[in-house]
Amino acid sequence: MTIDLVTMFSVPWSKLIYLDISFTRVGRTVPPSLSNSTSLTVFLADGCSIEGSIPPSITKLKKLRILMLNDNDITGQLPQNNLNGDTPLSLFRKSRLDRISFGVSGLSVEINDQDQSLVQTFQPEILEFTSCNMRGEIPKFFSNLTILVILILANNSLSGAIPYWLFNLPALSVLDLSMNNFKGVIPPTIQLKSSPYPTIISLADNNLQGPIPSKFENVNVINLSLTNLVGSIPTQIGEVHGIRSISLSGNKIHGPIPESLCQAANVLQVLDLSSNSLSGTIRRNLSNFKSLIYLNLGENKLTGSVPKELERVTSLRYLDLNGNEFEGSFPTAIQKFQDLKMLNLAGNRFEGRIPKNNLSGPLPENLDGLKMMTKTQNQTTIFGYFYSLKFTGAQLEIVTKRQTRFLVSVCSYNTGFDVSSNALTGKIPEKIGLLNGIPFLNLSHNNLTGLIPKTIGEMISLESLDLSYNQLTGEITVTLTLLNFLAYLNLSYNNLSGRIPTNPQFDTLYQDGTAYVGNKYLCGTPDGMNCSNN
C-alpha cells in the first residue's frame, strides 16, 4: 500500500485524532501541513521509509500524546525551535507528548542539561532514542522525569559511568542502555521501585568491569551480556523474587552454577549463561525450573552427564549445551520435551545411539515426540509481555549453511536440531522425517551408519542439511530432490555410492564441489565420474 502524505494532508483533517500508517510505503517527508490536524493525539509511522527531517510545524500539534517514527530514514537533529534556547528537545516544551519513539530513525538527539524549564513542562512516560547518535554522558535531565516508565537509549555512543540515580527514578520499569560505551562498575545493588509493569534492566554490550551485582530488587529481566564482568555468579541472584530472565552470556564468569540459582519457587523462563568459563556439572535441582523455556549453557567448561532430572522441565523450547565437556550416552531427558523447538548438543563427548524409542508422543516410536518440531509455524511469547524477548539478550549459536550464526532473537529461526561433533552411533531414525517443521538438521561429525532415510524428503521446511563426516552407506535417496527450500547440502566424507540424484533445483546445491567429496563410489555430477548403465 502506497500513501502520499503530502496529498493526504493537502486539506485539513481538523477532527483526526488517531493516525497509524506504520509499515506502509510512504517514502516521503513528513509534510508541514500535518500541523493542520489540530486534534491529532496519536501519530504512528514506524517503518515507512520516511525521509528528510521532522518539520518544526509539528510543535503546533498541542494535543499530540504519542509520536513514533521508528525504522525510517529521518536525518538531521530534532528541529530547532522558535521558543528560546537551542535544545532540540525543547521542541516539546509545551506539548502533551508522553510517548516519543525515534528508534533506528537516523535522527540525532541532543539534550541540554541547562534547560530546567523544559523539565517543568515536559514529563513523558516513554522515551526511546535507539540509534540516534547520542554522545557523551547520560544527561542529568532524565533524573527529573518523575513519571518516566520506559527509557531506551540503546545503540548510541553514550559513555562515562552509568549514574546510580537512574535506578531510583520513581516510575521507571524499563531501562535499556545496551550497545553503548559505558565504563565503570555496575552498582552492587540494582533496585527499581515496585511497579505494575514488567521491570527490565539491560546493560548489555558495554565496557563495564567488576563483579555481577549481588542484589537485585523488583527486577523481572536482567541482561548483563557482553559487559566484561568477572568473578562468580552471586548466590543471591537466585533469591530475586519474580525474576523471569537472567542473561549473563559472553562475560568472564567462572566457577560452578550456584545451587541457590535453582530455587524451588523460581519462575525463571530464560537462563543464558553461555560463553563464559563456568565449570562443574549441571545442577540436578535445575528441575525446579517448572516454567523454563530457554536454557543456554553453551561454550563453557561444564562436565559430567546431562542429569535425568532435567526431563521434569517439560516447558523447554530452546536447549543449547554445545561446546562443553559433557559425556555419556545421548541424553534421554529430551524425551519429555514435547515443546522443544531448537536443540544444540554439538561439540561434546556424547556417545551411543540416537534414542529410537525414548522420544515419545502421539506416535511414540521415535523423534516425533518433539511436537514443536513437527510444525512449520511456531511463535514463542516469553512472559506474555510486549517488551519481553527484545530485552532478554537470549541468543543461540547454530551452524547452518556452513556458517556459524548467532540468533539474537530466537523467534527469528523457529526450530532446529544440531547434535554434531559427538560420538553418536547407529542409524538415523526413520521417524526423523516427521520433524517437518525444522529449517536445519545437523548430524555431522559422528559415527552414524546405515542408509540416509527416505523420510528426510518429508522434512519440507529444511533449508540446511549436514550429514557429513559419518559412515553412511548406500545411495543418496532421490527424495532429497523434493526439498524445495534446501539451500545447503553436505554429505561429504561418508561411504555413499551410486548415482547422484539430479533435478534443476537440486543441481544448484553442489556448485562448489564440496557436497559429495570423500565418497569415492558416487558417480555423476559434479565430479565427472561416469555412471554405468547399471
From TrEMBL:
Chief location of this protein within or outside the cell: membrane
Give the record's family classification. Answer: Belongs to the RLP family.
Report whether Transmembrane shows up as a keyword of the record.
yes
A GO cellular component term found in this entry reads: plasma membrane
List membrane-spanning regions: none
Which keywords are on file for this protein? Answer: Cell membrane, Glycoprotein, Leucine-rich repeat, Membrane, Repeat, Signal, Transmembrane, Transmembrane helix
On whether Glycoprotein is a keyword of this UniProt record, the answer is yes
Please report the record's description of how this protein sits within the membrane: Single-pass membrane protein
Record the organism. Capsicum annuum
Question: What is the name attached to this protein's record?
Answer: Uncharacterized protein
Listed GO biological process terms: defense response; response to other organism
Q: Which Pfam families match?
A: LRR_1, LRR_8
* Family annotation (InterPro entries): Leu-rich_rpt (IPR001611), LRR_dom_sf (IPR032675), Plant_LRR-RLKs (IPR050647)
Location within or outside the cell? Cell membrane
